[in-house]
Design a protein that fits this description.
This protein is of the alpha+beta class. The protein is about 30% helix and about 10% strand. A two-stranded antiparallel sheet has the order 1-2.
Length: about 100
């Protein structure tokens, strides 16, 4: 396990442990717990997404979200006073 982050954690009441924040993947709150033959305990993050939300967690959608977030951070956005104003701008942009 050379090069991996390691941290000592204490076993609390009722056999509970608290994982260090930097060890916990963002948005994950469920883990599969496996005891290996050598006594090692392995925690595997489990992603639970409702079926009607699965598309929004696809790689393609998440890449689009990342791009949109970057555009927002960089100030590459424009606000419009109304839907009509937005449609007019889009029409002008495409030459309609």
């Amino acid at each position: 396990m050379e090069g991996m982050n390691t941290r000592q954690v204490a076993l609390g009441k009722r056999n509970q442990i608290t994982l260090p924040r930097e060890f916990t993947p963002k948005g994950i709150s469920l883990f599969q717990c496996e005891k290996q033959e050598d006594g090692t305990i392995l925690l595997v993050p489990q992603v639970t997404v409702p079926a009607n939300q699965a598309y929004f967690w696809s790689k393609r959608w998440q890449e689009g979200e990342d791009g949109a977030s970057e555009d927002i951070r960089a100030g590459r956005l424009r606000r419009h006073g109304s839907a009509r104003e937005l449609i007019g701008r889009l029409d002008r942009k495409r030459g309609a």
